[in-house]
Design goal:
This protein has 5 helices and 8 strands, in the order H-E-E-E-E-H-E-E-H-E-H-E-H. The longest helix has 15 residues, at about 45-55. It has helices at about 5-10, 45-55, 75-85, 100-110, 125-130, and strands at about 15-20, 20-25, 30-35, 40, 65-70, 75, 90-95, 115-120. It starts with 6 loop residues before the first helix and ends in a 6-residue tail after the last helix. Strand 7, helix 4 (about 100-110) and strand 8 form a beta-alpha-beta unit. Helices cover about 40% and strands about 30% of the residues. By secondary structure, the chain is an alpha/beta fold. The strands form 2 sheets. It has a 6-stranded mixed sheet, with helices on both faces. Helix 2 runs parallel beside helix 3 (about 75-85). The chain has a domain at about 20-70 and about 80-110.
């Protein structure tokens, strides 16, 4: 399910940014990403996203991250750690998965991060979990 089709979209009234590689929704305490099918999410793409996030939230703000994995795409999980060292904005992440393969990929990615990462089966589960992270409240 796309974020725009969820009940939370109208409730949270996010600021939407469309980039060549996906749609991003900036909410008060988190941002949600929907990456386009077939994209390889690399360092340059993440840097351009981080510039947008810093511009919106400020450089010292802690936020949550939700990856709504409606499309298959690839990434190097080491890049997330490099970005985190440079910006240190993300307090916790939730990955919404829709298939066994997506769940398996999220499980592998979870091994590469020191921060809390929850695998979820719905946007509602992910948003509810992120909104209850104590670092964001």
């Amino acid at each position: 399910m796309k974020f725009e089709e969820s009940n939370y979209f109208n409730t949270l009234k996010p600021h939407k940014i469309t980039m060549p590689y996906g749609d991003f929704y900036f909410c008060e305490k988190f941002y949600l990403a929907e990456i386009n099918e077939g994209i390889h999410l690399d360092y340059d793409k993440l840097i351009s996203l981080m510039i947008e996030l810093v511009g919106y939230y400020g450089k010292d703000r802690k936020i949550g991250f939700i990856s709504n994995r409606i499309n298959p795409y690839s990434l190097d999980p080491h890049v997330y750690n490099k970005i985190d060292q440079e910006f240190n904005m993300i307090a916790a992440s939730a990955y919404v998965v829709y298939s066994d393969l997506s769940y398996m990929n999220a499980t592998i990615e979870k091994r590469f991060t020191k921060k809390s990462l929850k695998r979820c089966i719905s946007i509602e589960e992910a948003v509810d979990w992120i909104l209850n992270i104590k670092e964001l409240n």
